[in-house]
Design a protein that fits this description.
This protein starts with a helix and ends with a helix. It is globular and about 60 Å long. It contains 8 helices and 4 strands, in the order H-H-E-H-H-E-H-E-H-E-H-H. With 184 residues, the protein is an alpha+beta fold. It has helices spanning 3-9, 23-34, 53-62, 68-71, 96-113, 126-133, 162-165, 174-183, and strands at 45-50, 74-81, 117-118, 139-148. It is 40% helix and 14% strand. It has a single domain (3-157), classed as NADH Oxidase, CATH 3.40.109.10. Helix 2 runs antiparallel to helix 5 and helix 3 packs antiparallel against helix 6. A 4-stranded antiparallel sheet has the order 1-2-4-3, with helices on both faces. Belongs to the nitroreductase family.
Length: 184
């Protein structure tokens, strides 16, 4: 698939077939995450692949009871290694949430390229996910995604227009433009 086509095709899938994901496909997807950029190239991430049906159910429960997650072939849990992340982005924040997010996005786009569906999961109880997956206290859960073959076409969701999210040379939103235009 062509890159921009992949970006447009990616949708949040909430219904999956029970088909397993071939090992070579899963490895290509995970390798896409491995290749992601990170601040200072520290790569402060770890991914947990959950395949066991009972474990997937427990993870789905820890994600505010989203049972559709357990239908997918695997669930990938994206963990950030806070201690090794670069700590001075913008001179005020650590890089770990951003680094992990970029890597997980690579995984999600690679899954789309392989004909698989995903759904970015940010609704979870971190302590519960850590308990289920045996994640140490000093590791942060940033997001999860089920990965599997879609059982139905994901619904189309709207996106803002570029004019609503982009300005040039200085910060100015379309709302500010509208206010200015109304004033005359």
């Amino acid at each position: 698939m062509e890159f921009y086509e992949i970006i447009k095709k990616r949708k949040s899938v909430r219904k999956y077939k029970s088909d397993p994901i071939p090992e070579d496909v899963l490895n290509r997807i995970l390798d896409a995450g491995r290749m992601a950029p990170s601040a200072k190239n520290y790569q402060p991430w770890h991914f947990i692949v959950v395949r066991d049906p009972e474990m997937k159910k427990k993870v789905a429960e820890a994600c505010r009871n989203q049972p559709f997650m357990a239908e997918a072939g695997v669930i990938i849990c994206g963990c950030a290694l806070e201690k090794i992340a670069w700590g001075r982005m913008g001179n005020y924040m650590a890089s770990w949430p951003h680094d992990l997010t970029i890597a997980l996005d690579h995984i999600i786009l690679a899954a789309t390229n392989e004909g698989l569906g995903t759904c970015w999961i940010g609704a979870f109880d971190e302590k519960m996910v850590k308990d289920v997956l045996g994640i140490p206290d000093d590791v942060r859960v940033v997001a999860l995604t089920p990965v599997g073959y879609p059982a139905e076409e994901a619904r189309e969701r709207g996106r803002l227009e570029l004019k609503d999210i982009v300005s040039y040379e200085k910060f100015e939103t379309s709302r500010e433009l509208e206010k200015r235009d109304k004033k005359g």
